Amino acid sequence: MTDTPAGTSPHADVSLRPIGEDDLPVITGYLADPAAVGPFQWFGWPDPHRWKRDWAENGLLGPDGGRLLVTRGAESAGFVAWRKIPSATSFYWNMGILLWPQARGHGLGTQAQRLLVRYLFAHTLTARIEADTDVENHAEQRALEKAGFTREGVLRGSNFRDGQWHDSVVYGILRTDPQPTP
Length: 182
What we know:
By secondary structure, the protein is α+β, with helices and mostly antiparallel strands. The protein has a single domain (14-174), classed as Gcn5-related N-acetyltransferase (GNAT) (Aminopeptidase, 3-Layer(aba) Sandwich). Helices cover 25% and strands 36% of the residues. It has helices at 24-31, 34-37, 50-58, 108-123, 138-146, and strands spanning 14-18, 61-62, 65-72, 75-86, 91-99, 128-134, 150-161, 164-174. Strands 1, 2, 3, 4, 5, 6, 7 and 8 form an eight-stranded mixed beta sheet that branches. This is GNAT family N-acetyltransferase. Residues 14-176 form the N-acetyltransferase domain. It holds the Pfam family Acetyltransf_3.
């Protein structure tokens, strides 16, 4: 990761962009490394060809969800993802983020999630975006709160990881909520 020039924010040049085919080896490499994804995102060995198939199908951007690369300057820092959750009469988005180990702890996640919220509200009709994280993932909870999300509750036993069920914290943000500026 490059150093930030003096007097600038460490996330001043964070952006989101479509994932290119040449990004896939880096992403799948990180996803296949339990230490790289971290204890809250390791769910076992992933299908090594899934991302390539999904990219060939729609460039990882479709009507039911998508994935964008998080970059800092020219460097890949991770990715954000969202998926459509149907409701009785419409839908909302559930979103998530995975940053590479060297990108964590610098505010990039908060900024990337703010950018994704702005993108989804600007380009889709949804009124709600939600995110969830493990109850023990305090760093992600802080990042979501800084990104403007409201803690809404705990889903008990909702996530199976490492041989046991874990609770998740649900956060939400509405189109009508004040939006923090990036």
